[in-house]
Amino acid sequence: MHATFRPVSWRLGACLWVVLGTSGCGGGVVGYWTGVCDAGIGVDRFDMDMHLEIDGLDGDRVEGGGAFRYNDFLFTGELKGNRDDDALDVDIVGVAGGYTITNRVLLERVGDELEGVCAMTDQDELLEGEITFARD
What is the C-alpha to C-alpha distance for residues 68 and 53, in angstroms, rounded to an integer? Predict the structure, then answer.
């Protein structure tokens, strides 16, 4: 009797790809994301361009880089945070001209987008708003 090699069925492979590739917030959030936060206080609002570069996930930890434009300055820096199922809670510690601002972003995976809120403090004023990120 000869042993014969039978390759894994393409259906099983496709099923595994669907399950592993789309489950939870996991690897599906790794990559580049762009959005505009409608930030401000009350009716005093402004658009703040934001970019996320999610490099990797280690258990419930999220790491990468980020950038946001505020007061005509581009703040860039490290992105660190946590994930839980379909939710992300990350901080972008942005630096521009020696000035540092931490922008916290709380997001939920909704279809192909990340939706949520952004919040930062500038000189004791809390600026917050809603944001939707799309893949860049």
Answer: 12
First-last CA distance in the chain: 55
Q: Which residue has the higher pLDDT, 135 or 24?
A: 135
Token pair belonging to 105: 């972003």
* Encoded amino acid at 29, one letter: V
CATH number attached to the domain at 10-135: 2.40.128.120
pLDDT one-digit tens code per residue, 91-130: 999 999 999 999 999 999 999 999 999 999 988 889 999 9
Nearest 10 degrees: Cα torsion 125, 36, 28, 24:
60
Burial label, 131 (beta-carbon count in 10 A; 0-12, 13-18, 19+): buried
Quote the CA–CA distance of 61 and 67 in Å, as a whole number. 19
Note the pTM of the prediction, 2 decimals.
0.77
Which helix (H) or strand (E) segment holds residue 80: the answer is strand 73-84
Domain locations in the chain as residue ranges: 10-135
The DSSP letter of residue 29 is G
